Amino acid sequence: MRPKIVAGNWKMNGNQAFVRDYMASFKECWSDKNLDQLSDLSVIIVPPAILMVSVSEYSKALGVNGFFELAGQNVSEYSSGAYTGEVSASMLKDSACQWSLVGHSERRALFGDKLSVIVEKIKQLLSEGLRPILCLGETLEERELGKAESCVRSQLESVLDAFSVSDLSKLVLAYEPVWAIGTGKTASPEEAQAMHRFIRSVVASKSADLAEAMIILYGGSVNSGNAESLFRQNDIDGALVGGASLKPEEFTEICAQCCLGQIL
Ligand code: PGA
Questions:
Q1: Residue 220 Cβ < 6 Å to ligand 1
Q2: Per the confidence metrics, is the pTM higher than 0.85?
C-alpha cells in the first residue's frame, strides 16, 4: 500500500501570532486524536516562506516538530543571485524544508509559471534533495469542453518527458481541479478517482512501477466533511488542503480520516 500524505497549504495567510496559536492548538488536537499512533501518514505544513523558521521554532519548543514536515509553497527556478523577491531551493532546505509545491494553479494563473518554468523549478528542488509536490488540474472551462484529461495530460507529460524515472520517483502529484480550489465545490469522490486513475495511467506510460508507487493527492475544498469519502478511493493517497488547513482542529481531523481510510 502506498504511504499517505496530508499537506496543509496556508497560502498567503498567517503571522507570528498565528503560528504561535496554531502550534499550541495543533499539539492539543494531535494528542486528543492520538495521531502519533497511526503509521504511514506523513503530515506536511506549507507555510509562507517568511514564517517557515517560526513554525520550526514554535513546534520544537512544544515538542510537536516530529509530527510534521515542512514544504515551501513555491521555489525559484534559479539557484542564487540577483533575483529580487525569490526564494531558492537551498534556502528552503536551510529552513528545514524537505518538500515544495510546484505548479500550484494560483502560480500558473497569476504568476506566469508556465510548463518550462515548472520543469526548471523541479530541477532546482531535486538538485538540493528536496521533493517536489507537483500540482495539476483543469479549469472549469476545460472540464466543460471535455478537455480535462488532455489538459492534465499535457501538464504531466511536460514533466514526465523532462526527467528520469529515478528523479520522478521523488515527486508527489496533487490533482487539484481549479474550479474546486477555494470555491467550496469539491469533485465528487468518483470524479476525483477517475482523474487519479487517468493520471496513474499517464505515469504508467513512462514506467508501470513508477505509476504504482506514485503518491497522488487530491486538492480542492477538502474539509473534514468530505475527506473520508475521497480517501476511500483506491487511487487517492491523501490530500492537499488549503483553507481548512488554517484551522488546526479541522486539519488534524482530516489527517485522522486519512489514517482511518487506511484501516477501513
Ligand atoms: P482549498 O485550496 O482547500 O482552499 O480549496 C487547496 C489548494 O489550493 O491547495
A1: yes
A2: yes
